[in-house]
From TrEMBL:
It is a multi-pass membrane protein. It holds the Pfam family Sugar_transport. This is Sugar uptake protein. One of its GO terms (molecular function) is carbohydrate transmembrane transporter activity. One of its GO terms (cellular component) is plasma membrane. Belongs to the GRP transporter (TC 2.A.7.5) family. The keyword Transport applies. Keywords: Membrane, Sugar transport, Transmembrane, Transmembrane helix, Transport.
C-alpha cells in the first residue's frame, strides 16, 4: 500500500507540470529556464543531504543527459502552446512510450520472452490508438488557424521526443548511474540546455522565478518514483508515473479553459482509456 501511495506522487507531480507552468505563464524558453532553475535548487539540496560519490563520467554524461532533457522539455512547452496541454501532453507521453519501448526491445534486447512481445505489441497498439483519439479534432470546429497550429505542435513534439528519448536511452541503456548521484550533474545540464534555448540572453524575470516551482515538482516526482520502485516494484512505479497524462488532460480543461466539443470529449475518453491500459501493460512487460 505504501508503494502505491509513493507512486501517486510522481503521477500528480509530473502530470501537473504542463498546466501549472502554463497557468503561471511565460514563453517556452522562459518556462524551461525557470523549471530548470527549480530543478537545480532541488538537486543541490538533495546532493547536500545525501553526499553521493561523484566521478568524471557522472558529471560528463549527467550534463549531456540534462541538456537532452532540456531540449525535450522546451519542445513540449512549445507544443502545449500550439495544441493545448490536454492534447500535447498525452501525445508526448505516448510517443516516448511507443518509440522508447521499440528501441529498447529492438536495439537493446529488453524483450526476450514471448509473453513480453505479446503484451508489448498489444500495449503499443493501444498507445497508438490513444495517439489518434487524443489528437482527433472535430471537423465542424476546425479552422485553418487550428490546422496550422497543430502542424507546428507536431513539429515541436518531434524534436521534443528526440530529446527525451536520447536522454532516456543514455541513462537507461548506455550509462547506469545512481539516480541520487546523477541528479545534480543532470540539473546543471538542464540549466545549460535552457540557457542555450534562450541564446544565453538570461533574464531572471518574475515569470521565470515562478516557474522554478515546476522544477521543484519535477524533483519531488523523481524522488518518489525511486521510493515507489523500491517499495512496490518497477511495474507499479512505471505504470502510475505514466498515468500523469490524465492529470494533464483534466488540468488543461479545468484550469486553462481548453474547450472540447461533445465529440472531442468522447474521443478523449477513449484515448485516455487506451493510454491507461497500454501503460499498465508496458509496466508488466518491464517487470516480466
Amino acid at each position: 500500500m505504501q508503494g502505491i501511495l509513493f507512486a501517486l506522487v510522481p503521477m500528480v507531480a509530473w502530470g501537473s507540470i504542463g498546466f501549472v507552468s502554463n497557468k503561471i505563464g511565460g514563453r517556452p524558453n522562459q518556462q524551461t529556464f525557470g523549471m530548470t532553475v527549480g530543478a537545480l535548487l532541488f538537486a543541490s539540496v538533495v546532493w547536500s543531504l545525501v553526499r553521493p560519490e561523484m566521478s568524471t563520467d557522472l558529471w560528463i554524461f549527467g550534463i549531456i543527459g540534462g541538456m537532452l532533457w532540456s531540449m525535450g522539455q522546451y519542445g513540449q512547452f512549445q507544443a502545449m502552446q500550439y495544441m493545448g496541454v490536454s492534447v500535447a501532453n498525452p501525445l508526448s507521453s505516448g510517443a516516448q512510450l511507443v518509440f522508447g519501448s521499440l528501441i529498447g526491445a529492438i536495439a537493446f534486447g529488453e524483450w526476450t520472452k514471448s509473453i513480453q512481445f505479446f503484451l508489448g505489441f498489444i500495449a503499443l497498439s493501444l498507445l497508438v490508438i490513444g495517439f489518434y483519439f487524443t489528437s482527433k479534432q472535430d471537423s465542424d470546429t476546425r479552422t485553418v488557424e487550428n490546422r496550422s497550429d497543430f502542424k507546428k505542435g507536431f513539429s515541436a513534439l518531434t524534436y521534443s521526443t528526440i530529446g527525451y528519448l536520447s536522454y532516456a536511452i543514455l541513462f537507461n541503456n548506455i550509462m547506469h548511474f545512481d539516480a541520487l548521484a546523477v541528479i545534480l550533474p543532470m540539473a546543471v545540464g538542464m540549466v545549460l540546455g535552457a540557457m542555450l534555448s534562450m541564446k544565453f540572453h538570461i533574464r531572471l524575470e518574475v515569470v521565470v522565478l515562478k516557474n522554478a516551482l515546476v522544477g521543484i515538482m519535477w524533483g519531488i516526482g523523481n524522488i518518489f518514483m525511486l521510493l515507489a520502485a523500491a517499495k512496490a516494484g518497477l511495474a507499479i512505479a512505471f505504470s502510475f508515473s505514466q498515468l500523469g497524462v490524465i492529470i494533464s488532460i483534466i488540468g488543461g480543461i479545468l484550469f486553462l479553459g481548453e474547450t472540447k466539443t461533445a465529440k472531442e470529449k468522447r474521443w478523449l475518453s477513449i484515448g485516455i482509456a487506451c493510454f491507461v491500459i497500454g501503460a499498465v501493460l508496458l509496466g508488466i512487460v518491464k517487470s516480466s
